[in-house]
Design a protein that fits this description.
single chain; mainly alpha; Arc Repressor Mutant, subunit A; 6 helices
């Protein structure tokens, strides 16, 4: 393997692990999991996605997504609604409680990320964001 690629791979693993560990630890301390937090964020951004869209976004099976959503419905953070154009289709919407919980947790995670970014020069912030956006584009 090319030395640069090997180094890049190692760096991606380290960054993913370190940031993921912090966010997971924070989420667990609040009784959340990363998948639950990511699901609330996705539903909030998309408006009323289907179960399949949730599963695709999280790269999980629809059965796993159903289990995840069942937990969010049980805690009154997400509600299932019937699609107005196709009654066979079930859509998901975030509730006021879910939105409040999401906002509070994203604020705390945002503080962590801001603290992380503040350790880098300002130009590096923009470069990091641009590079990550380009990488995401390649996979979409």
């Amino acid at each position: 393997m090319d030395k640069n690629i090997d180094h890049l791979f190692s760096l991606l693993i380290q960054v993913s692990h370190q940031m993921g560990e912090y966010i997971n630890r924070y989420a667990r301390s609040k009784g959340l999991t990363m998948p639950r937090l990511a699901t609330l964020k996705y539903i909030n951004e998309e408006g009323s996605p289907t179960m399949k869209e949730i599963a695709d976004c999280l790269c999980i099976t629809t059965a796993s997504a159903t289990s995840l959503i069942n937990g969010l419905v049980k805690t009154n953070e997400v509600r299932r609604i019937t699609d107005k154009d196709d009654r066979r289709l079930v859509r998901l919407v975030i509730t006021k409680r879910g939105k409040k919980n999401l906002d509070k947790n994203l604020h705390e995670i945002g503080r962590y990320l801001k603290n992380f970014l503040n350790k880098l020069p300002r130009q590096d912030h923009q470069n990091l964001i641009k590079i990550l956006e380009k990488i995401i584009k390649f996979y979409n």
